[in-house]
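>> Question from a student workshop board

For tomorrow's exercise we were told to take the sequence and the ligand below, predict the bound structure, and bring the output to class. My setup keeps failing. Could a helper post the expected result so I can at least see what it should look like? The ligand is adenosine-5'-triphosphate.
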Amino acid sequence: MTTPDRTHSERGGAGIRFSDVGVTYPNGHHGLRGIDLDIAPGEMVAVVGLSGAGKSTLIRTINGLVPITSGGITVGDTRVDGLRGRALRDLRADVGMVFQGFNLAKRTTVLNNVLMGRLHHTSAWRSLLGAWRRDDVELAMQALERVEIVQKAYVGAAELSGGQQQRVAIARTLAQRPRVVLADEPVASLDPPTSHVVMRDLQRINAELGITVVVNLHFLDLARRYGTRLVGLRAGEVVYDGPGADADESVFEAIYGRSLTAEDVLDAPAVQL
Ligand SMILES: Nc1ncnc2c1ncn2[C@@H]1O[C@H](COP(=O)(O)OP(=O)(O)OP(=O)(O)O)[C@@H](O)[C@H]1O
Ligand SMILES: [Mg+2]
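>> Workshop helper replied:
Here is what the output should look like for this input. Compare the format with yours to find the bug.
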């Protein structure tokens, strides 16, 4: 049971709209083609596809990390393409990101890592001197509570397991008070039980805070289980868009161009030796 979070519940999630989006990289590679997606505020979307299908490209266009080369993207009321400077930084404050490699500052404490999520709202002198506002520290502690790791607040980040580090990374993102959280293969470096713990954290922030979550996943069973909506990409195009639970063998073949193997699922039944 978590405490109701006044600061978050005021914000809720933002919708994301892709209109005929294309990305062609400078070397001529097509990252995405003709993407039309309308993600409602508060949806939890899992994106799957083979390596090179465009999952990371898709997620990174949402916060402007990868510039689109045709079409348009909006997050809430903000048109993403073409944003720069202060407006782009404001968008990125609203759109948190979680990575496969956690990206924590290892030489400092868990709490300091989470406070980094407040940097956008903090003057340079305060962050340089570590003179964080009491409200910001409270928000950071609440974020750690939300991912059930508040007891590690004063521990060095380097002392945590991979799963714990990913939970801290999620807390850091939450401290931003984001309206969207993007996660690019957040469990790819974790063992199966820990993967479920981290996926449940993402599910919880989606359900309790109404934050829109878009998560790239390698394993189809995880995507079906946690993505209320599943988007399948193949060669930069959407080839499936529907409920995770409806993604059956034929959907799998459309996305991967072959049948399902044990490599494609996290919790594959043990092989008889
Ligand atoms: N910076 C880049 N410059 C040129 N081409 C790129 C760049 N990043 C990605 N691509 C190309 O765009 C396509 C989509 O790549 P992307 O990284 O989005 O795939 P992915 O689905 O995330 O793959 P993975 O599962 O391996 O992470 C690929 O053909 C890739 O080679
Ligand atoms: Mg990728």
